[in-house]
TrEMBL record:
EC number(s) reported in the record: 2.2.1.6
Family to which the UniProt record says this protein belongs: Belongs to the TPP enzyme family.
Functional pathway: Amino-acid biosynthesis; L-valine biosynthesis; L-valine from pyruvate: step 1/4; Amino-acid biosynthesis; L-isoleucine biosynthesis; L-isoleucine from 2-oxobutanoate: step 1/4
Domain Thiamine pyrophosphate enzyme N-terminal TPP-binding: 5-119
Protein name as catalogued: Acetolactate synthase
Limits of the Thiamine pyrophosphate enzyme TPP-binding domain: 396-543
Signal peptide feature range: none
UniProt key word Ribonucleoprotein: no
Species: Sphingobium cyanobacteriorum
Source organism phylogeny: Bacteria, Pseudomonadati, Pseudomonadota, Alphaproteobacteria, Sphingomonadales
């Protein structure tokens, strides 16, 4: 076997594992790796402007392509800058490999220049992490890391490589796959749990499918099987923020998103159901509201590949530990084998029709200001008219919720947002990563004027690699969600939520070589969106929306689904301290 340096072994492993793109930023502790990448024929390196941007780009790439995202950063500040994106990937179950440089092994623990305890820092925000001290073990570790990141419940894995290990040599041969001694994710369901689930579904009079990001993480087959099972049972379907697109928004069985800013019909259906089939979701606090009032009279089936998620927050009647696609396939097969028929759910659908009649996503317009909901609805309409594949990313805040409510998704992997961690600064770099992985798609980041500034320097990355990403800013001059909660919770004392010194986004775009567009009134909205979509290169749109619009409907913190608010006029009094603590 030929001897290779640790850096060359790393690069060869990436090639062997099919890696095409690496997002990174060089520094002293990874220079040997960068030298090995110099003019590499098959691996494309994307030079980011900040390591947090690299991690979010890798997330966007992973979520839109189904391939693991790969990040390369230096030691010390390079690694610590990546921690936010690593944590975001852990919370949202995104497969990502983060390769960090480290000071030479003999200097570890001496507070050497640009040394940080990367393993200690990332231990609780990774699925697994490694400190490699022997170049002879490097290949096996890299292949194992990819296996761990992409199987079971996906997640980020960190590989910390000291500089002397990158330089030292060792024999290299592609490692043979070995069954891990302790890592054995369960992907096939126990037959008894499938049997129980099928009979409960057949007997249900008020069923609802509660779906999440696990459906999308499982792959396109899981989304197809979800649609088939919904058709077989006739049950209504709702989704978490992370699960949008797994079930088509145009379907008559679609209730919309549920949870804090979900639809009236989705939340009431969850509350009144006699059976909830939870598929790849985790009963997050933003979904359940007050736990003792959550779906009080329902039986619950929970499908999840992560055993630790089951009975963690809500006790369930049937626990199915399995990959979503595998479990749904088994349920469908048994349903057909037993010749179960589509249940008569007419009474249940009649009740749902009554909740739908509330039209909880409606909003008032004054003809003078652009309502943010209208901006999203018009963007959705214009995107559909192009006939092109469109990928939407978002930053975090009011605009994120409006996008989830008013942009309909028909397919998985077209909606990329930060759910569990709620990371401002996620959306734009995620759009760059998605565009890199899907060069023929139209990739649009829906942003707020505050959150877009978290990683706005990545406009330079998009320019350098000629990526035609679009940024659509709903500019209300506030940190909108913070302002909304201050209005509802702290009697409109807007403490540091007003952005007093916003940049001229159009001029900023032009400084980076982008096209800048400003939309200031309803009469300009349609033409401005069309210009954005018709422009070949990167575009930033400053869409001036109503400054004090709030995101409704909403379930106040600490409240039940039945306490849902549909408009600001329902709000009275001041929240209790207990409710404030849950904001």
């Amino acid at each position: 076997m030929a001897e290779k340096s640790g850096a060359d072994i790393l690069v060869q492993c990436l090639v062997d594992l099919g890696v095409e793109v690496v997002f990174g930023y060089p520094g002293g502790a990874v220079l040997p790796i960068y030298d090995a990448l110099y003019n590499h024929p098959t691996i494309r390196h994307v030079l980011v402007r900040h390591e947090q941007g690299a991690t979010h780009m890798a997330e966007g790439y992973a979520r839109s392509t189904g391939k693991p995202g790969v990040v390369l950063v230096t030691s010390g500040p390079g690694a610590t800058n990546a921690v936010t994106g690593i944590t975001d990937a852990l919370m949202d179950s995104i497969p990502m490999i983060v390769i960090t440089g480290q000071v030479p092994t003999q200097l570890i623990g001496t507070d050497a220049f640009q040394e940080a305890d990367t393993i200690g820092i990332t231990r609780h925000c990774t699925k697994h992490n490694y400190l490699v001290k022997d170049p002879g073990k490097l290949a096996g570790i890299i292949h194992e890391a990819f296996h761990i990141a992409t199987t079971g419940r996906p997640g980020p894995v960190v590989i910390d490589i000291p500089k002397n290990v990158q330089i030292a040599t060792a024999p290299y041969a592609r490692p043979e796959f070995k069954v891990h001694a302790s890592y054995h994710p369960q992907t096939r369901a126990d037959a008894a749990t499938i049997d129980a689930a099928v009979e409960m579904l057949a007997a249900a009079e008020r069923p609802v499918f509660y779906t999440g990001g696990g459906v999308i993480n499982s792959g396109p087959q899981a989304s197809a099987l979800l649609r088939e099972l919904a058709a077989l049972t006739g049950a209504p379907v709702t989704s978490t923020l992370m699960g949008l697109g797994a079930f088509p928004a145009s379907s008559d069985q679609w209730l919309g998103m549920l949870g804090m800013h979900g639809t009236y019909e989705a939340n009431w259906a969850m509350n009144q159901a006699d059976l909830i089939l939870c598929v790849g979701a985790r009963f997050d606090d933003r979904v359940t509201g007050r736990l003792d009032a959550f779906a009080p009279n329902s039986k619950k089936i929970h499908i999840d590949i992560d055993r630790s998620s089951i009975n963690k927050i809500v006790d369930v009647d049937v626990a199915i530990v399995a990959d979503v696609a595998s479990a749904l396939d088994d349920i469908i097969a048994l349903w057909k084998q037993r010749d179960h028929r589509h249940a008569d759910l007419a009474e249940w659908w009649a009740r749902i029709a009554g909740w739908r009649a509330k039209k909880s996503l409606d909003y008032a317009e004054n003809g003078v200001e652009i309502m943010p909901q209208r901006a999203i609805a018009d963007l959705y309409k214009a995107c559909n008219a192009t006939g092109k594949d469109v990928i939407i990313t978002t930053e975090v805040g009011q605009h994120q919720m409006w996008a989830a409510q008013h942009f309909g998704f028909e397919a998985p992997n077209k909606w990329l947002t930060s759910g569990g961690l709620g990371t401002m600064g996620y959306g734009f770099p995620a759009a760059i990563g998605a565009q890199m992985g899907n060069p023929d798609s139209v990739t649009i980041c829906i942003a707020g004027d505050a959150s877009i500034q978290m990683n706005i320097q990545e406009m330079g990355t998009a320019s350098q690699y000629r990526l035609p990403v679009k940024i659509f800013i709903l500019n209300n001059e506030y940190m909108g969600m913070v302002r909304q909660w201050q209005e509802l919770t702290y009697e409109s004392r807007y403490s540091n939520s007003y952005s007093d010194s916003l940049p001229d986004f159009v001029k900023l775009g032009e400084a980076y070589g982008w096209t800048g567009i400003r939309i200031e009134g309803p009469q300009e909205l349609e033409a401005g969106i069309r210009q954005m979509l018709d422009t070949d290169g990167p575009v930033i749109v400053d869409c001036r929306v109503a400054k004090l619009s709030n995101c409704f409907p909403m379930i106040p913190s600490g409240a039940a689904h039945t306490d849902m608010l549909l408009d600001p006029n329902q709000i009275a009094g001041v929240m209790s301290d207990e409710a404030k603590a849950l904001v």
